[in-house]
Amino acid sequence: MSDKKNIIIGGSAGSFQTVVAILEKIKKDFPFSIFLILHRLKNVKSGFIEALSVKSKLKLKEPVDKEKIMPGTIYLAPSNYHMYIEYDNTISLSTEETINHSRPSIDATFVSAALSLQNNAIGVLLSGANSDGAQGIYAMHKEGAYTIVQDPKDSQIQTMTQAALNLFQPDKIMTSEQIIHYISKYINYGY
Q1: Given 12, 105, 127, 176, the catalytic residue
Q2: Active-site option among 39, 105, 107, 151
Q3: Architecture category of domain 6-189 in CATH
Q4: Could you tell me the pLDDT band of residue 129, with boundaries at 50, 70 and 90?
């Protein structure tokens, strides 16, 4: 894993604190994009991005449909929209049916990253209460992305991470602290 890569992070119940800790470690000159797909209440439109933004030195935003992907930006999947990473370096949003009872769906973004970014991506799957994300991170793995799954024993809720481990062996299985340290080292030093 010598080349820098875009980072795609998916999580649900029990993942928020880990995501916040990752955002706090990112230096403002990080040259690639980060995509966050976090399950949240669809009726709550404000407060979530603001809570994450205060922890990040990078620009953090909810993208609009067909927005061009820019380096050094964190893209948070908007509430109640699927977020897809497209071949033409844009983001598309969709209100298609839920996937694994979720919209945004981690699987939807991970699969689009697998197809459009292939080995130019790192996929990270964190704690969650359903299996959304398991098939998607497996798709990323099959397309050459570097994959990290939080250790179910370390997850506040094991369903999501265990579902992924039932499908395949990722490149790394780590605790949340190890994930934070690993991504911080990668982001800041290019490991």
Answers
A1: 12
A2: 39
A3: 3-Layer(aba) Sandwich (3.40)
A4: very high
